[in-house]
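Forum: Protein Structure Q&A
Topic: Joint prediction for protein chains with partners

I've read a bunch of threads here and the consensus seems to be that you should model interacting components together rather than docking separate models afterwards. I'd like to see that in practice. Below is the full input, 305 residues plus whatever partners are listed. Could one of the regulars post the assembled result?
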Amino acid sequence: MSAFQPGDRVQVKDDWPERRGRCHIRTPHYLRGRSGTVERVLGSFPNPEDLAFARPAPARPLYHILFDQPPIWSEGEAGDSLLVEIFEHWLEPASPTPSASKEAA
Amino acid sequence: MSAPARPESLALLEKLITALKAKGLVSEAEIAARQASTDRASPEIGARMVAKAWLDPAWRQFMVANGAAAAEQMGVSMAGAPPLGILEDTPSLHHLVVCTLCSCYPRAVLGYPPHWYKSFEYRSRAVREPRAVLAEWGTSVPAGVQLRVIDSTADYRWMVLPLRPEGTEGWTEEQLAALVTRDVLVGVALPRLPVAMAAE
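Posted by a regular:
Agreed with the consensus. Here's the joint model:
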């Protein structure tokens, strides 16, 4: 079962496991702390963060998340977007005001 | 004179295969089958899928819903391959595929990725200034058409289903497929009529 549904506003965790030691993550750095919308649920796949180290890898829900492109880079054309596969354990419900949590961090 | 020494990597590969066989994880037949399907894979498969989708609305619907099943119907073995997603262009939306983390690419239906797809430049710029990247390809996305960049970061692989160009009414599947190049299937180019025909 997936925690989020198409249309839900979500935020990618502003987490940096690479600062804590060896890891393998499939969440691009430029999206950490960014908010987007669930486009579709893609199914569940073994967690690559475990697979990479030959650990037992429980299946985790994977989503296609749609982000507005210009706010991420402070440039670009209005209406352009990024669509990215993000695992559920990297997502949380979006805070009410966009980017508020990023400023508070 | 003695023969040149065998590369160490080859000896290592043989040891690995022997160990995998001993554990029952892989068989000689499976390796041969995978090699054969890798050799067969080329953008022509993706191009045929697109041409068929332009001609047959039922096939388009089937392919968009399940890209892997559609590839299987084209004779591609998708066993062990990641699921295949189809990105449907519309008159107001164009898709571009990149993998910023490595070089994820729909190999089952497009074959090996080109060098530029794996380059640091393409991977870093495609998500940040996609319109500038496309302009360098000579591809202009008209104003009013939104650009959607797919960062292929995890377990799916993605292929673009572009718009059928105007002026191709009555064309056969083969004629249409010839317009769909590898670059078109990733979204860095749009299908274009041969210059001579477009001028007519």
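The domain at 41-199 of chain B is CATH 3.90.330.10 (Nitrile Hydratase; Chain A).
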